[in-house]
Amino acid sequence: MNKILVFISFALLLGACSPTQVAPPLPFGPLPNKQQMQWHNTEFYGFVHFTINTFTDKEWGFGNESPELFNPSDFNAAQIVKTTKDAGMKGLILTCKHHDGFCLWPTKTTEHNISKSPFENGKGDIVRAISDECRKQGLKFGVYLSPWDRNNPAYGTPAYIDIFRAQLTELLTSYGDVFEVWFDGANGGTGYYGGANEKREINRVSYYDWDNTFALVRKLQPNAAIFSDIGPDARWVGTEAGFSGDPCWNRYTPEGREPGIPPANGQTKYWEALNGHREGKYWMPAEVDVSIRPGWFYHMSEDDKVKTPEKLLDIYYNSIGHGATFLLNLPPDRRGQIHENDIKSLNEFKTILDETFSVDLTKGAKVTASNVRGNSKNYQAQNVLDDDPDTYWASDDEILTNELVINFQETTSFNLVNIQEYIALGQRVWGWTLDKWENEQWVQFTSGESIGHRRLWRGPMQTTSRLRLRITQAGACPLISKFSVHSEPSYLVPPTIARDKDGNLTIAGQKEIRYTTDGSDPDQKSMTFTTPFDFSDGGVVKAKIFTNGKAGTTAIKQFNYLKKKWKVISGNEDSHNNNNLFDEDETTVWVSTSKGKGNLVVDMGETLALKSFSMFPRKDGIKSGLITRYQLWVANDTTNWALIKEGEFSNIYNNPVEQVIPFKETRNARYLKFVFDGIVNDSEAQIAEIGVSVEKTNLKTTM
To answer: 0.85 cut: is pTM over it?
Structure first.
C-alpha cells in the first residue's frame, strides 16, 4: 500500500511539473481594453460623409445653409451599406452632424435638422435608415458627431455643451449598438452662429470637458470605441493622406501642441501620432482615415478623381499592414447613393484582396522555434499557423531574441507575409527581420520594428523552401499568434500620364496603351498611344493597358490650360520664384515676399473662356503658409475687376489637395487676381501651382 501511495505522489508531482502547466506570460505595458480589441478586429470599415455640403459643393458648410437644400433625389440606404459590405468592410460610420450643424436625424436640440428639409416630407431620418440597414446586412454601425457647430447660436458658451451632449445621448440611445464614436479635432473659428457671423474661439482643453463627455459614451454605449486626437481608445493618425508611419506603435502619449498646454482635440503634436511611441503611456492605436476621392463630400468635379484599386491597395498595406485600422470614406452623391465610379474601383480592389488572401502558402508547413516557453505544447511554434487568435507561440521570459523557421513542403514563391502579435498581453516586439534560405545560407530580405495587431510585408517576389522570422529586439518575451504567407496576383499596372511645360503629353506603360480625351473609358477601339502629342488646351486623359485579351485599370489625369504665356505682374518681385506657379510641377513652391494677407495678379497673355480656377497647396507636410481664405477676381484689363467668388479652403490644413473654384458661368478674361486673406500662422503664403480650365471653344485671343 505504501509503495502505491509513493507511486501516486510521484506521478502527481510529475504532472505538476508537466510542460502543459507552464505559467503564462505576464502582461507587458499598457493593454487594450475590450472595446479596443473589438475595434482592432474590425480592421477595415467605411465612413459616409453626407449632409448639406453634398448639395452646396462645399467641404465645410458655414452654418447658414437652409435645411431645404437637403433633398437627395433617390436615397438608397441599402445601396450605400451593400457597397460598403461588398468591399470587405465590417462597419460603417455616418457623419450624423458635420461642422455646419445640420443634423441628419430629427433631433429635439435644434431646428437645423432633417425634419425641416423636403426629404421625405420632413419625416426622414438618415441615421435610422443607415443604422437599420447596417444591422440588416450584418455590419457594425458607428456615429460621427462634430463638436464644432457653426450654426448653433450657443456655440462657445456652456449652454452648447449641454446641447452637444443631448445630441450625443439621442444618437447613442435611439439607434442600437454603436461600435465607434468619432469626435473631430476641428473646433472653434468663423461661423454663422445663429446670424452672428463672427469668429468664436474656445479653450480646446477645457471647453468640452472631454472626461465627462467620454464617460457619457461609456455609460450609454459601453462596447463602443472612442476616437479622437486624444483617444482614449483610438487616435487620429495625424494625416488624411491614407497611411500610417512605419513603425506605427499601438502605444501613444499625446502631448499638447503648445508648451505648457495639455493635449486636447485639435491641440496635440499630431505629427507624433503618425508613428506613436514605442513606450507610450497608453494603448491608443492609430486609425487611418482617408476618402476615396480628394474631398470628403461628393463633388461632381471629382468623378474622374476616384482612387484606383492599386491606390486603395497601397493604403490597405500602409494602414492595416502597419497595425492600424483603415477607415475609407465613401461620399454619397446628390441622389443619395455611392457613385458608380467609386463602386467600380472598390470591386476591383476587393477582387485583388480576395485572390491574395484566399490561399495561405504555409498550409502543410512545419514550424520550429529556437525556444518554446517551458517546452509546453500550449506555446508551441505550430500555433502560429492555426486560425485560433487565442493560441500563440511564446518563449521563456528571459529569451527576448529568438526565431521561428517555416519549412515549406516544397519550394514556394510569395511577395506578402502576415505577422500578428498576441496583443491582449501588450505590444512586445521592437525589432524583427525576415530571412529566406538561399544557396545553403540565410539571406535577409526585409526588417522592421513594430508588429502589433497585424504587420503585412509586401515586396518583390521571393522564392525559397524555408522562411525565418527573427525577433531581434523585444521589451518582453515575444508572443506571435499568426504567421501566414501569400502571393499577390499579377495585374496590369495603370499607365502613367504626364505633360511637360511645353504641353507635350506622354503616356508610359507596358504593352499596348489605348487612350481617350473625350471623357469615355478606353477600349480596344480607342486611339493607340505611340508618340507625345500637344495637349495645351487641357482636359481629361484616360488611358488603359491591353494585353493578351486582358485590360488593366484606367488611369485618369486632368490637366488645366497650359500656362506657357503666364506671368505675375503684381504681388511678388522674385521672378525665379514666380516660375514655380506655372511649371507643371507640384513639388516646386511659390512663396510670397511678405507675411500675412496679400495677392497675386497674373497676366495669362490671352483672353480665355474660364470655367474654373485651381490652386495646388504644397504637399510636403509643411503647414505654415497654407491659404485658408481667398477672393478670386477676373478682368480684361487691370482696372475693371469682377469678383468671381470669395470663401475658405475649409480642410486644407489636414487635407492639402487641389482646391478648385468653379465659376457659375463661363467668364472671358485675360487677368486673374487671387487674394489671400487667411494664412496659417500668418506667415508667407505658399502655393505649389495655380491653373484654370477653359471651354474648348475659348477665345484664345492674343493681346
So the answer is: yes
